[in-house]
C-alpha cells in the first residue's frame, strides 16, 4: 500500500467556554499509528483551565502562542508551578500529572508531540483526568471515595458532583490561582526562542536542539526535539536520520515547499506547507524544505533522545567524505564533472541562503 505522508490539520476533540482540545487522528494520518506517534494541541481562552490529568504517553509540549501557568507533579514529588510563554518546551514523561491555566487576554496555545508505543491506542494520547465529569472520582462509588480519603458521604457527593466540566473549564476570574514560583522552571523548561543556537547561518537559518544536556527530562521521555527557523527563500539541506528515528514535524510559522524521497529513489511527498500543518517523515527517508518569502519555521520531535542526522549537501555532506573515484564511478561521469560537484557548497552547512 502506498504511503500517504500528506500534511494534516488537527480536529477538535472537545471544548467549551474555557478552550478546546484538538488532536491529529491516525485514520487521517496513518503514519501516526504506524510510527506510534501522538500529536495534539490545547487552546485556552482567558481563565481557561485544563484540569489536572496524566497521560499514557511521554510528550514534549511547545508553547505556540500566549503565556500562562503550568502545574507539573512528578511521581512522589511536590508540585512545580511554572510560568510558561511562547517558545517554551517542556518534556513530560508518561504518568506525570499536569494542569494548564491562562490568565491573559491572548489565547494560550500549546502543541503536544509524543510517542504512544506504551499507550492504550497506537497513534493517540489517552488522558486520565483527576477531576471533572469524566474524572477518576466519578468512576468510583461514594463508598470507595469515602473510605480512600476518609470523607463523609455529603462531602464525597460534593466532590464528585460539583465539577461538571469535561477536561477544560473556565474558572471565575476572582479565584486566585497558584502563582509561578521562582526556580521551578529550572530543569523543566527550555525556551527555544531564547536558548543558545546550535546552528546559526547568516541569511540561512537557525536551530535549537532539545536534548539530554539542555533539558534533562528529555532522557526520560525518550526522544529529542528541535525548533528550526529558515529565512525567506532559504533551503534546508536534504538529509535523513541515520539512527532509525522518525521525524514528526509541525509547521509553526511561515510557508514553503517540502519534498521527501524514499526507497528506490521515489519521491513520496511533494507539497506546500503552512502554519498549523503536521507531517511525518519515515525512518531513513530523505527530506528537504525551501521557504517562501516569509520564511519557514517548524518544531519537530525525533524518536531518539540524542538524534544524529546525515546531510547530503553542504560542507558536512556525506558526499564530501566519499573518495573522488567512488563518486566518479557511482555517477558514471568524467573527473571534471565529479570535481565540479565536489567543489560546490564548501562553506555552507545545512541551510543554504537564496541564490543572488
Provide an overview of this structure.
With 356 residues, the chain is mainly β. The chain has helices at 30-35, 136-139, 142-149, 153-162, 218-221, 318-321, 324-331, 335-343; strands at 11-16, 19-23, 37-44, 48-55, 59-65, 67-73, 80-85, 88-92, 97-102, 108-115, 127-129, 168-170, 189-191, 199-201, 205-210, 224-230, 235-241, 247-261, 267-274, 278-281, 286-302, 309-311, 351-352. The strands form three sheets. Strands 14, 15, 16, 17, 18, 19, 20, 21, 22 and 23 form a ten-stranded antiparallel β-sheet that branches. Strand 1 and strand 2 (19-23) form a beta hairpin. Helix 3 (142-149) crosses helix 4. The longest helix has 10 residues, at 153-162. The relative contact order is 0.15.
List keywords for this structure.
single chain, 356 residues, mainly beta, 10-stranded antiparallel sheet, 7-stranded antiparallel sheet
Short précis:
This protein has 356 residues and is mainly β. The chain is built from eight helices and 23 strands.
Amino acid at each position: 500500500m502506498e504511503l500517504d505522508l500528506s500534511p494534516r490539520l488537527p480536529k477538535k476533540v472537545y471544548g467549551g467556554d474555557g478552550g478546546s482540545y484538538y488532536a491529529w487522528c491516525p485514520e487521517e494520518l496513518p503514519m501516526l499509528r504506524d510510527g506510534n506517534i501522538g500529536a495534539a494541541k490545547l487552546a485556552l481562552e482567558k481563565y481557561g483551565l485544563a484540569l489536572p490529568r496524566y497521560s499514557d504517553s511521554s510528550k514534549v509540549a511547545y508553547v505556540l502562542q500566549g503565556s500562562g501557568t503550568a502545574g507539573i507533579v512528578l511521581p512522589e514529588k511536590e508540585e512545580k508551578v511554572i510560568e510558561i510563554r511562547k517558545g517554551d518546551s517542556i518534556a513530560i514523561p508518561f504518568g506525570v500529572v499536569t494542569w494548564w491555566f491562562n490568565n491573559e487576554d491572548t489565547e494560550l496555545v500549546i502543541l503536544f508531540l509524543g510517542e504512544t508505543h506504551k499507550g492504550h491506542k497506537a497513534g493517540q494520547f489517552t488522558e486520565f483526568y483527576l477531576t471533572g465529569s469524566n474524572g477518576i472520582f466519578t468512576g468510583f462509588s461514594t463508598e470507595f471515595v469515602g473510605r480512600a480519603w476518609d470523607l463523609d458521604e455529603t462531602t464525597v457527593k460534593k466532590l464528585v458532583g460539583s465539577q461538571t466540566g469535561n477536561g477544560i473549564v473556565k474558572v471565575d476570574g476572582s479565584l486566585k490561582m497558584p502563582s509561578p514560583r521562582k526556580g521551578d522552571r529550572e530543569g523543566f523548561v527550555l525556551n527555544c526562542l531564547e536558548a543558545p543556537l546550535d546552528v546559526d547561518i547568516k541569511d540561512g537559518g537557525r536551530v535549537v536542539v532539545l536534548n539530554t544536556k539542555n533539558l534533562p527530562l528529555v532522557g526520560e521521555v525518550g526522544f529529542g526535539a528541535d525548533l528550526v527557523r529558515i529565512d525567506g527563500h532559504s533551503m534546508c539541506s536534504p538529509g535523513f536520520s541515520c539512527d532509525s528515528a522518525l521525524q514528526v514535524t509541525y509547521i509553526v510559522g511561515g510557508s514553503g515547499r517540502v519534498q521527501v524521497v524514499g526507497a528506490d529513489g521515489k519521491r513520496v511527498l511533494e507539497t506546500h506547507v503552512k502554519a498549523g500543518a503536521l507531517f511525518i517523515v519515515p525512518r531513513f527517508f530523505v527530506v528537504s524544505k525551501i521557504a517562501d518569502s516569509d520564511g519557514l519555521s517548524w518544531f519537530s520531535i525525533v524518536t531518539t533522545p540524542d538524534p544524529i542526522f546525515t546531510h547530503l549537501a553542504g560542507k558536512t555532506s556525506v558526499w564530501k567524505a566519499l573518495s573522488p573515484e567512488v563518486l566518479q564511478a557511482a555517477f558514471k561521469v568524467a573527473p571534471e564533472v565529479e570535481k565540479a560537484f565536489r567543489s560546490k557548497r564548501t562553506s555552507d552547512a545545512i541551510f543554504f541562503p537564496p541564490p543572488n
